Request: fold
Amino acid sequence: MPKNFENEASTHTAGLTADALVKSGRGIYTGYTVTVSVATAAIVIRDSLTAGAGDIIDVIPVGAAAGSTKQRNVIFKKGLFVDFGATTTGTVIAEYM
Reply:
């Protein structure tokens, strides 16, 4: 990675309720916060530019309650994509550098 992220703070999305390309290119996925409970299907966090493709770097499980958080430090190379299933409901904030 061309840049040293050691002393940088994470940034985050607004609350997401549908598929979203959060960031294209390289970065570090640092976690998530659920703001509305996840129901029906899991939300998949991918190293990708599109839904259903690329490497899975995290999964927010069905039943994750509002207020649930998870801290990670996972490098992504292609992009950071939040992938809601066709019937998934819930709201999540993705964090990254």
User: Anything to note?
Assistant: The first strand starts at residue 11 and ends at 12.
